[in-house]
Amino acid sequence: MSTGTPLTRLTERLKQPFHRDGRPTRLHPSAVWAEASSTAGLALEPAWRTVRKAWLTYVWPVLSVVSVLGWSVLAATILLWWAGSAYGWQEAKAAAVAAFVMFLIAVCFILGRSTYGVVLDLARTRVAVGDSAVGSIAVTNTSSRPLLPASVELPVGGVTAVFHLPRMKPQQVHEDLFTIPTARRAVIVVGPVRSVRADPLHLLRRQVLWTEPEDLFVHPRTVALAGSAAGFIRDLEGMPTTELSSADVSFHALRDYVPGDDRRHIHWKTTARTNKLMVRQFEETRRAHLAIALSINTDEYASEEEFEMAISAAASIGRQAIREQRELDVLTQKGPLRCETGRNMLDDMTRIVGTPMRRTAVDLARTLADTVPNASVVFFVVGSNVTATQLRSSAASVPPGVRSLAVRIEAGAASSRANIADLTVLTVGDLADLGIVLRKAAA
């Protein structure tokens, strides 16, 4: 296969009019067209870059000022003038002149330069659902002359807030406060702040950006679980296992000395009393490591309320684990979440978007077992549509010796506890009951 530019390949092919067996070659029209198009694209690429740069730098800023209504007026002006000239309609010509004069007057409203100093200040960039999100916009006239009244727009998510600026003297500061609703978990883009100058009919609209956009994280609502995890994460170093060790921190019993044992573990008081060497036997301990499998398959939830409650429950458990300085992993069907700090975890949970998918909670449990093999406590956070059979299959993926609990969210149901083999199933009907249910599981 020949290499080089499309032009070189086309030239080489044209130089080979015959096959090796002597038959004449035939160039397919589509192949010739493809090679020619590629060559033209390479040749015109520098010119296209120059034209595109000039368009974005000089032409587009001018054309973008004209609104849809402004383009309509210009089109009507041309149409009326043509009709008046073609059919001798003086009224049409007069209407065309009036429309054009109106457009020229609109130009006068957007001319000039506005020199503002704009500061967008969000009191907090991270709030929980239901908390107040307050911000302010401070606009300063940084020029040496007064500025006419204008408008300042602030995009907040999918809506735009409009603030009206009065006539401002040099160095005068005008400040407006605003409140952002936080009824739902979301990442809200606030800004950029832009000043707008337009004519009364909004034929022309000129805007200037003054700030960068900022992200406002509305974290899921969480509840405090102080002390609720103490029942199944008992000691400082982790949960004791059934495996015995000759050296650890969890004392188990005394046994007879066997040649090769570490003499530092000889219990001398018991040795003196029994007149034979006795050594300490320990239980191996496991560093407390929590893993949370949060299903984001919306088919497993009866309502959006259940889905949001599941995210809040997982966030509450993860937040408590981080406060207790436990190792933590949180996994969804779309991958792991950051858990270095509580802020990172809540930020990633705020970005979660639930979708119907083929991967169920059972598939997530298998992925969790492979991803976090050293977990000591595993939480499955699922919706009310997950069956007992699916929960049993999820628990079967957990390695032996790992404490597993399923937090089953069912909005409005009475909170309860049940067991499916070694799996503890906690039904939560209200987020406020999460701490109580966990204490029951630890009892």
Automatic annotation (TrEMBL):
<feature type="transmembrane region" description="Helical">
    <location>
        <begin position="58"/>
        <end position="82"/>
    </location>
</feature>
<dbReference type="Pfam" id="PF01882">
    <property type="entry name" value="DUF58"/>
</dbReference>
<dbReference type="InterPro" id="IPR002881">
    <property type="entry name" value="DUF58"/>
</dbReference>
<keyword id="KW-1133">Transmembrane helix</keyword>
<protein>
    <recommendedName>
        <fullName>DUF58 domain-containing protein</fullName>
    </recommendedName>
</protein>
<keyword id="KW-0812">Transmembrane</keyword>
<keyword id="KW-0472">Membrane</keyword>
<feature type="transmembrane region" description="Helical">
    <location>
        <begin position="94"/>
        <end position="112"/>
    </location>
</feature>
<feature type="domain" description="DUF58">
    <location>
        <begin position="254"/>
        <end position="408"/>
    </location>
</feature>
